[in-house]
């Protein structure tokens, strides 16, 4: 419905009060309907449009396989027993029997049997000493039985010595009787082996007395 102003075909004028009906164009209606449906479809599509999904990054790592047949070389280690150390300032009286080495820095009075015995400078040993190797830098008094005896410059020995190999440095002091005999060493060896075996079977060495200087 609408109002119009103007002159009619019969010569009369319209003052704008008369209403006329404008015919509805079906084409325009269809276009309007199509626009409406299209707009609605767009709105629906916008509503149902899935949210943006972050791109997933897949990282492929190579699997490391270990061949059990391949082994790293392992160096064989040999365990060596630490020597029995008698510290400086200690004085022992008694018997010491061990299958290990003995390092004497103090003083001992008695019988000592070991694999090897080292008497350090300033140390002293009085008694019977039996070992495969004996190194003297200190003072020894008594009976020495060994396969190899080494007396260094500061070493001093007085007594009876039974040996197979004797090494004496310049300045060393030896007073007493020295026996070098393979037969005597062979005769001594079983006794020494028995003492070492006994020391290995014994959980603790024979008791000895500690005398503080």
Automatic annotation (TrEMBL):
InterPro entries: BacA/B
Domain of life the protein comes from: Bacteria
Short name of any one Pfam family annotated for the protein: Bactofilin
Sorted UniProt keywords: Plasmid
Disordered: annotated segments: 1-21
Transmembrane segment boundaries: none
Stretches with biased composition (Basic and acidic residues): 10-21
Family: Belongs to the bactofilin family.
Name of the featured protein: Protein CcmA, bactofilin family
Classification of source organism: Bacteria, Pseudomonadati, Pseudomonadota, Alphaproteobacteria, Rhodobacterales
């Amino acid at each position: 419905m609408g109002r119009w102003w103007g002159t009619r075909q019969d010569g009369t004028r319209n003052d704008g009060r008369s209403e006329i009906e404008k015919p509805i164009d079906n084409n325009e209606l269809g276009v309007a309907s199509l626009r409406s449906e299209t707009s609605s479809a767009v709105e629906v599509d916008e509503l149902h449009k899935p949210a943006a999904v972050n791109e997933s990054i897949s990282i492929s790592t190579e699997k490391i396989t270990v061949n059990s047949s391949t082994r790293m070389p392992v160096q064989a280690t040999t365990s060596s027993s630490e020597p029995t150390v008698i510290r400086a300032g200690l004085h022992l009286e008694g018997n010491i029997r061990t299958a290990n080495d003995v390092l004497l820095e103090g003083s001992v009075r008695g019988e000592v049997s070991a694999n090897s015995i080292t008497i350090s400078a300033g140390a002293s040993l009085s008694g019977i000493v039996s070992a495969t190797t004996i190194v003297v830098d200190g003072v020894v008094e008594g009976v020495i039985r060994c396969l190899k005896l080494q007396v260094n410059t500061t070493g001093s020995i007085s007594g009876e010595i039974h040996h197979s190999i004797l090494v004496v440095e310049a300045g060393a002091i030896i007073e007493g009787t020295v026996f070098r005999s393979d037969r005597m060493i062979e005769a001594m060896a079983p006794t020494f082996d028995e003492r070492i075996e006994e020391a290995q079977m014994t959980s603790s060495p024979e008791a000895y007395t500690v005398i503080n200087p």
